[in-house]
Amino acid sequence: MLFHRRLLPLMLILLCSPCAAQDLIGKLQDRMAENPDAVGLMEASAKTFSSVEQSSFNIVNTIDVVAGEQENTQQQVYAVMLGAEGKYQVELVKPTNEFWVRSNGEQTMTYLQPLSQYSVADEAGGVGAFAASRLASMLGNGFGSLVFSMLDSGSTGTVAETLTDSSYIGEEQVGEQTLHHCRYTADKMSWDAWFTAGDSPRLVRLQPDLKEIASKAPAAKQFDNFSFTMTFEVKDYDAESELPAEAFAMTPPEDADQVEDALSPPEPPPHQLLGQKAPMFDTADPAGAPIDLGGLVGKKVIILDFWATWCGPCVAAMPKLDQVADEYADKGVVLYAVNQGESADTVNAFLEGKNLDVSVAMDPEGAAAQKYSIEGLPTSIVIGKDGRVQVVHVGFSPDLDSKLRGELDSLLAGEDLATQTIDAWNEEHPNRKVKTGAKAN
């Protein structure tokens, strides 16, 4: 009954006064028109970024963590330049210049300073292609792809298609700027975005909703006031000034190697002992009988296989090494399986169980492994008759036996495999040259 009492006066006004009704409807329509569509704002903003001939700006990513009385703020700054025909450059300038990606509209070059390597791809696609890249997905705690998608009309359209909810929150006054505040949800992830008002709205701020993530963090159980917030701000937007002449140039960075994929770990340099005189060490067989490795230098090609019974790849490699050593025994090749840190009983039980007749050198304290800078098992060292480390194999590969046969044939024919390997490396990696027995620069 209360509902009808409140509604009746309004109905009487509308029925008895057509002019009043029209005025009221007009005001409602004006109010609705004043509230922009959230998706429309996002798409219009992307068009603003995409339609100008050129622009430059910074994307400032700020992370604030509060845990008890401790407050921590971290910040990364990406310098962005956009040009016509899909040209762009994204560079991390704070805290350090760790990477940049640039495209001239035909090719895309990616450079990672910590790895001192770069790659060139014969493809483009504008900043939207960067937004879809693996590198972008690694930025901003995983939100980099979303942020850079907002700079490209095509990518923004893709984001819009994934939205499950969007809403216009209202206008907000930030300093001298009037901003449109919107909220979006896609795939259980929500974020707020602020756009400039006017005919050409432009994204100025994006903030993911991390409340649920923060509530599940281990620190949330330790501190009553734990919070984790992240914002991305577009600052110093300039669509008027001329960009540097070298912008978007496919100029390789100095002192960097070109590789197929700049994000992949760099190829390790040759082993630091390669080409050096092989260090000798005191050792004995499982029965305790001393082994005189030094007495074999100059007479034999020595294979040292660093291994352990618990190492699966070692177990797979040993029969292959044993077979090759037997084949070349008459040609002056000997094999010693240098066991790491195990007892004689363990070694003997293993050999008996696998029906192997391998000469084992015990290294109970790992002293030999330390001399040879062994970082993983199995590692096989081939020492030439000249007493120098000629070949190093780290890990196991199915074709280990065939590789070893070829290397032994070359060594027995008088070739210097260590020098060949180092020379080949230096030719392929002019910015990471090594000297015989030296680490990469």
TrEMBL record:
What GO MF terms are annotated? oxidoreductase activity
Entry-linked PROSITE patterns? THIOREDOXIN_2
Swiss-Prot/TrEMBL keywords: Signal
Q: Where is the Thioredoxin domain?
A: 272-413
Q: List the SUPFAM superfamilies hit by this protein, alphabetically.
A: Thioredoxin-like (SSF52833)
Q: Which residues form the signal peptide?
A: 1-21
- Identify the Gene3D superfamilies for this entry: Glutaredoxin (3.40.30.10)
Xref: Pfam families: DUF2092 (PF09865), Redoxin (PF08534)
> From what superkingdom does this record's organism come?
Bacteria
Q: CDD domains this protein is in?
A: TlpA_like_family
Which InterPro entries does this entry report, sorted A to Z? DUF2092 (IPR019207), Redoxin (IPR013740), Thioredoxin-like_sf (IPR036249), Thioredoxin_domain (IPR013766), Thioredoxin_ResA/DsbE_sf (IPR050553)
Question: Which parts of the sequence are annotated with region: Disordered?
Answer: 253-281
Protein name, UniProt field: Thiol-disulfide oxidoreductase ResA
What is the protein's species of origin?
A: Posidoniimonas polymericola
Per the record, the gene is resA_4
